[in-house]
Amino acid sequence: MTNIKKLGALILRAAESRRTSLLLCLLAGAMGALPYYIETLFIFTFISLFCQFLLLIKQKEVQKRVFKPMLCFYIGFFTPIYLFLSELYPYSNFGFSKVQAIFVLICSCIAIPLLHAFVVACVMGVCSYFKSNAALLFGLPALCVIWEWVLSIGTLALPWASVAVSMTGFLPYLQTASIFGKSFITFITAFGCCGFAISVCRRVKLHAILGASAILFNTVFGVLLWFIPIETNESFAVAAIQGNVLSNEKWDSENNGSIMERYIDMTAEAAKNGADMIILPESAIPQAFVPNGVIHRELTVIAEEYGCTIVAGVHFYDVETKESYNAVIAVLPDGSGTLSERYDKRHLVPFGEFMPFADTLSQILPFIESFNLSRTKLIEGDTPTVIETEYGGVGPLVCFDSIFPQFSSEAVNNGADIIAVVTNDSWFYDSAGTYTHLRHSQLRAIENRRFILRAANTGVTAFINERGEIITKTEPLVKDIAYGNAYTIEDKSVYCVIGDVFLYISFAIIVLIIGIEYLKFVRRSKNGNNSTASE
Length: 535
Hints:
By secondary structure, this protein is of the alpha/beta class. The chain has 18 helices and 13 strands. The protein has helices at 2-14, 18-32, 43-62, 67-81, 98-124, 133-150, 171-174, 177-180, 182-202, 205-227, 247-250, 256-272, 294-306, 358-364, 405-413, 432-448, 494-498, 501-534, and strands at residues 236-242, 277-280, 288-289, 309-318, 323-331, 343-344, 387-389, 392-398, 418-423, 452-456, 462-464, 470-473, 480-486. The strands form two sheets. Strands 1, 2, 3, 4, 5, 6 and 13 form a seven-stranded mixed β-sheet that branches. Strand 3, helix 13 and strand 4 form a beta-alpha-beta unit. The relative contact order is 0.11.
């Protein structure tokens, strides 16, 4: 506690100058991005939040305005997090000119962080109405929960960064997400850091005690949940194929035959080695998958010969509706190559799989349409389809779907006993983005208490248990097959039953605080009018 006070006092002294204060906000935000590069640096999430709240409270006392310091903080936070998008440059696969490529690079690595920082600063700006220490202690964590949710809604939703994602280096701390979801992790962590900040800034020991107690409670409760046994069904052998086809190779039509041969050969190898279930990554073979088509027939031969279930990410083409889907479908080992029900990707990637605001953007920036390398108009799915197999229900998630908690919980509530994540992260090579995406799968495993089978085209392919532990994983950018044993779980987590309750609690806290502050304002105004009348 003494060290925290010294750190706080040092920051407050440095923040006396307005420019220095904004610079400190920028640095504190950048500090919060460190765990996204090295997960063992999760401690910096606590330090960053503490500094953020300390500087925010100081700014409130001096100028009452918090938008600028919050904007600086979140620019410092989001900019390094989204730097992995620069891996796409020079966009040679898309046919952009150098000027067009630089424009897209700026939009990706500068405009997106600025947009997110602006949105989050607006949300955090609500704290300008918080007057009391209690309002700050409960209101600031609630606002953190709300801004994470805001970034997950709408056409351009990208809930890439969250407190919970930054904490995968300390898995016991995350186990309470199986009860209240990742919003609880955000709230309890921010609550603890805010308590320390109020204590240092306003010299109130009670809030430091409350903050420390909150973090300690979540840690102890998480450790207890870690050791509570979870009933599982009999295990079965699984394999996940990592064909390592780079993006510039995948969408070159001349490579279609060799890519299909590679994945078919690797699938046959996995089946020969005893895998009961084999997972192929997102759109593993860049050809249209149609029932009884060439891909279906090749996979059927393997499924029948070795008696294995093959769950594959495919570009499914519906011959009746003439529509295409980024989908997951299973070839079942019943002797006739029966196909399972099909899961269609539920959140397509904007600018990559569909063009938002197409009519307007196509006129202003027509070259942007080149982002869709498949040159196919994809239809977004709207149901949490579960693939029924002899081992239990498989809940598929395709790439971007895995960063939205509601999709996996809906699958579990629809009968999924195990979750399969198929993805293509070849765009990001071996950058921080590849590993951050993997950490989202760890969170989904904890929230739903489900084993996760993750197949990634260029990595990281992994098997993750219901506590978020990575049991097996491959190295990125290598051709490989991950082998292991998986199991299904039938019991639902508490989170699956009650949903994201802490999001609603956070909104209720903000409404309550603003309501109380408004009543206080009305009372002060009334008393002021009465005093004037009596005079």
